[in-house]
Amino acid sequence: MADSVLLADDDPLSCEFMAEVLRDLDLDVTTVGDGERAIEALRRKPFDFVFTDLQMPRADGMKVLAEAKIRDLDRPVVMVTAHGTMNVAVQAMRSGADDILEKPVSPEDLSLSLTRVRERRRLLRENRFFRAQSVGSDMLVNSRAMAGIVDLVARVAPSKATVLISGESGTGKERVA
């Protein structure tokens, strides 16, 4: 199944050009012409990626960015602007944008941006997966029972109590100690 993209831009020519490039990259693209429609679309469908113009009528790209991140903090959002200044770029990135492109956008720029945000999304998901499994700095557990044991060890560790740790060879007794 193709990744879905919400593309918000009030310039019809720019919007159609970017949509065509993204479709050529095998993405399912939904286009809207203003920020308010983009926000409505985000409330209806969990898009994989968002590409939004910064300056649009009814709601600007920063509002679209905020809505996209409220709904899914890890959803990649790429800001596209014809008014690219360093201040705009810094503000967008601080607000959670994953990339910023300056118009006119080339097919290569769109493709590179998509590659970057896809990789970032993959790394975030991978990181979350391993953090969920990681309990100690170097301990990975694969079951609730082991997670419970590690939790018990963490609660007992600060105390002065003497504890007997037993188990088969290779079960991690030395790490627990």
- The CATH class of the largest domain turns out to be Alpha Beta
| Domains (count) | 2
Q: What is the architecture of the largest domain at the second tier of CATH?
A: 3-Layer(aba) Sandwich
Outline: elongated
Provide the spatial order of strands within the biggest beta sheet.
Answer: 2-1-3-4-5
Beta-strand share of residues: 5-15%
CA-CA gap between termini: 48 Å
- Could you spell the SSE succession in H and E letters? EHEHEHEHEHHH
Largest beta-sheet details: 5 strands, parallel
Number of strands: 5
Short description:
By secondary structure, the chain is an alpha/beta fold. Helices cover about 50% and strands about 15% of the residues.
Summarize the structure in words.
The chain is α/β, with parallel strands linked by helices and 177 residues long. The mean pLDDT is 86. The longest helix has 27 residues. Helix 2 runs parallel beside helix 3. It has 2 domains: 128 residues, Response regulator (Rossmann fold, 3-Layer(aba) Sandwich), CATH 3.40.50; 41 residues, no CATH class. The chain is elongated, with a radius of gyration of 23 Å.
Topology:
Elements: E1 4-8, H1 12-24, E2 28-32, H2 35-44, E3 49-53, H3 61-71, E4 77-81, H4 86-94, E5 99-102, H5 107-133, H6 144-156, H7 173-176
Parallel strand pairs: 1-2, 1-3, 3-4, 4-5
Helix pairs in contact: 2-3
Give the key terms:
177 residues, alpha/beta, Rossmann fold, 2 domains, 5-stranded parallel sheet, 5 strands, 14% strand, elongated
